[in-house]
């Protein structure tokens, strides 16, 4: 049954004829298990902890200690004299560390915990006596483990699972192994402890009056009998954000805090391949996607290229190594195709090359070419870019070959096995692509934004070929882009509706639903000038613009659901791309309205934008309504404020040509914007905007500047 327009629906939807849980890893038709809104998430690379505000991991919602797609502990509690502690305060110092202050149940002890996550978790515990009496305190670490795969947790298939613990020989820890002995978890304390039934490590602590006691316990992952090393809590901070202080000072509401959160969260979402330790890539988001994702990692890198270009380069190199080489209908691998998703198995090695791969994405491949070009524009060293050109060439060959299923010049998708994704664009839920009347589009499907990405890829490929001295190839790629733009306008424009079709279905019919995908068309530049105003107006229509951002699907569509994953919710990255697209097309008023709405949503969310939130607007509720299973932090949501910042600055470098354009705009009521640390050609630049006065300093030598400002 389709949800009624305007009604909030929390029902789970399953595509007719497609099971909601399959034997494959990549398809899941239901809504994921919810992450509780009152929980704390601490994340570092492929490891993360979701816990209560007192520091305990409980069975409420989706909680746990996770490492490389395995949940080590589904419950983890600190008991004092047999009782849990009352939480008083929590400070998340960094995305990868948090401090919890509480008190014992009898209120005679202050109990502090310092948690740090890095390939496992370490927790420092401190007891401070308030009673003034010598005593012996019973301290227990209570753990439950299911060693569940993250997909099992996501799909709610682990409730009640519990594996038995065995004592460690040293007498200060316990261990649990899965059935085949490939995965294990170890809980270890730095003091003698007694292992009791039910996974309890008990310590008898002599505590003098007004005295203080400390210890540390660790949760460690083991694969094939090898313990994965915890990060050194006292050593150098390899996941520290690139800049220690805020890079933005402005009276634009919400901007500074959102940018600070973006930089810190993206640093924590870095994943480091042990085989390539100097090339960090970015994971998609906690809790479900702490792994390399083609589309998500690329888009986050594109948005983040001005603040951390090294992350984009590392991501591009990792994806080039994993690029498709052969045809495999099970994984949907094809030559030149950029992967969709990696998943870690049971091996002790966490090298990306050894992970399970799935390639079912129509847009990661063209976006890869755009990323390489963007790295060049922002001043990556030519040898680094040149090393990626074979991957670029292979990606463009995929666009012209396997990506174009019927040879009509458009790229389409259709899964090659029943366990693959039904929809393979960024809106990849089973019901994401529908007609205005609610009918689902049939495959093969040509998405509008996928054609825009391909257009941008051909143009980017032309620039890269020119830089490499191949003028003939550059000209051919330019002609390909121009031909695609003409064909796209002819096939996708709907004169009566006044906007572009969401897609062409398997019968080449225009899928006529009004959707946020239009913003991606402007961002890529495929919209001709005479269509730009209508496209901009459609984006800012009340049917799409919620007041917090862009709804994925218009309220007039039959499948509109404000809490539908891709059928009415608001995705910050989607809105940020539309803001950048509106700015590119010259519609600054539209861009400012949308940027103000998104920054207001960020401010109401504490500075950190979630993966998505409901399509309900400020008139419905004064704060954004979170999507129950939203990832947070999530890479492209975290990166969205950085793209908004660039759009407000109108900052467009071309390091190859030795030029940079700066054309800042400020929302109504704002008067100044200062930015320190955006990187062009390896140099951190400084930008100052004070009403109509603009200054840019510390540019690379010889770079020409074009500056224009509007208030």
Descriptive account of the structure:
With 711 residues, this protein is α+β, with helices and mostly antiparallel strands. It folds into 3 domains: 46-227, Glycoside hydrolase, family 65, N-terminal domain (Beta-galactosidase, Chain A, domain 5); 248-649, Glycosyltransferase, CATH 1.50.10.10; 650-711, Maltose phosphorylase, domain 3 (Sandwich). The chain contains 14 helices and 36 strands. The strands form 9 sheets. Strands 7, 8, 9, 10, 13, 14, 15, 18 and 19 form a 9-stranded antiparallel beta sheet that branches. Helix 3 runs antiparallel to helix 4 (309-321). The longest helix has 22 residues, at 471-492. The chain is globular, with a radius of gyration of 26 Å. The model is unreliable at 1-24 and 232-244 (pLDDT under 50).
């Amino acid at each position: 049954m389709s949800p009624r327009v305007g009604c909030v629906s929390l029902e789970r939807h399953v595509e007719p004829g497609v099971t909601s849980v399959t034997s494959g890893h990549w398809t899941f038709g239901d809504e994921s298990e919810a992450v509780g809104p009152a929980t704390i998430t601490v994340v570092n690379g492929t490891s993360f902890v979701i816990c209560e505000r007192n520091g305990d991991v409980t069975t409420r919602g989706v909680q746990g200690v996770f490492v490389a797609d395995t949940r080590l502990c589904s419950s983890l509690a600190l008991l004092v004299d047999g009782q849990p502690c009352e939480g008083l305060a929590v400070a998340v110092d960094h995305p990868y560390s948090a401090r919890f202050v509480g008190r014992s149940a009898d209120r005679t002890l202050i109990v502090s915990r310092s948690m740090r996550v890095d390939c496992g978790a370490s927790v420092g515990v401190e007891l401070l006596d308030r009673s003034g009496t010598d005593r012996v305190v019973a301290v227990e670490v209570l753990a439950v483990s299911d060693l569940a795969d993250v997909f099992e947790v996501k799909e709610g298939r682990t409730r009640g699972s519990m594996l038995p613990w065995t004592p460690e020989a040293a007498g200060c820890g316990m261990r649990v192994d899965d059935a085949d002995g490939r995965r294990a978890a170890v809980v270890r304390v730095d003091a003698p402890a007694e292992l009791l039934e039910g996974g309890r490590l008990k310590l008898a602590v002599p505590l003098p009056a007004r005295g203080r006691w400390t210890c540390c316990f660790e949760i460690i992952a083991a694969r094939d009998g090898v313990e994965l090393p915890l990060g050194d809590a006292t050593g150098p901070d390899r996941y520290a954000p690139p800049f220690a202080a805020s890079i933005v000072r402005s009276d634009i509401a919400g901007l500074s805090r959102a940018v600070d959160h973006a930089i810190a969260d993206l640093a924590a979402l870095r994943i480091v391949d042990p085989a390539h330790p100097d090339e960090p890539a970015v994971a998609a988001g906690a809790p479900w996607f702490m792994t390399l994702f083609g589309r998500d990692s690329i888009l986050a890198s594109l948005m983040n290229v001005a603040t951390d270009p090294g992350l984009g380069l590392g991501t591009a190199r990792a994806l080039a190594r994993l690029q498709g080489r052969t045809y495999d209908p099970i994984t949907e691998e094809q030559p030149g195709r950029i992967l969709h998703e990696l998943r870690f198995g049971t091996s002790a090695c966490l090298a990306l090359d050894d992970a399970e791969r799935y390639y079912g994405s129509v847009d990661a491949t063209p976006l890869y070419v755009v990323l390489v070009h963007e790295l060049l524009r922002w001043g990556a060293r030519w040898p680094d870019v040149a090393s990626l050109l074979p991957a670029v060439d292979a990606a463009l060959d995929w666009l012209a070959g396997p990506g174009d299923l019927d040879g009509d010049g458009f790229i389409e998708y259709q899964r090659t096995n029943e366990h693959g994704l039904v929809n393979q664009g960024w809106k990849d839920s089973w019901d994401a692509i529908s007609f205005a009347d609610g009918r689902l589009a049939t495959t093969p499907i040509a998405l509008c934004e996928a054609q825009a990405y391909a257009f941008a890829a051909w143009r980017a490929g032309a620039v890269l070929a020119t830089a490499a001295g191949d003028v003939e190839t550059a000209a051919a790629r330019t002609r390909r882009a121009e031909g695609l733009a003409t064909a796209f306008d002819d096939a996708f424009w709907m004169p009566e509706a006044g906007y572009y079709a969401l897609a062409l279905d398997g019968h080449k019919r225009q899928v006529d639903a009004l959707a946020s995908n239009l913003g991606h068309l402007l961002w890529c530049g495929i919209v001709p000038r005479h269509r730009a105003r209508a496209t901009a107006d459609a984006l800012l229509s009340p049917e799409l613009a919620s007041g917090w951002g862009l709804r994925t699907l218009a309220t007039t569509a039959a499948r509109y659901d404000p809490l539908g994953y891709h059928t009415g919710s608001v995705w910050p990255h989607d809105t940020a791309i539309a803001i950048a697209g509106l700015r590119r097309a010259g519609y600054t008023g539209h861009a400012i309205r949308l940027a103000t709405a998104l920054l207001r949503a960020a401010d109401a969310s504490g500075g950190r934008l979630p993966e998505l939130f409901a399509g309900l607007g400020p008139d419905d509720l004064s704060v954004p309504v979170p999507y129950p299973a939203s990832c947070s932090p999530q890479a492209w949501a975290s990166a969205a404020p950085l793209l908004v910042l660039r759009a407000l600055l109108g900052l467009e470098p071309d390091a190859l040509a030795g030029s940079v354009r700066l054309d800042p705009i400020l929302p109504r009521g704002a008067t100044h914007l200062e930015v320190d640390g955006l990187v062009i050609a390896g140099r951190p630049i400084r930008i100052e905007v004070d009403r109509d006065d603009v200054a840019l300093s510390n540019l690379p030598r010889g770079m020409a500047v074009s500056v224009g400002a509007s208030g």
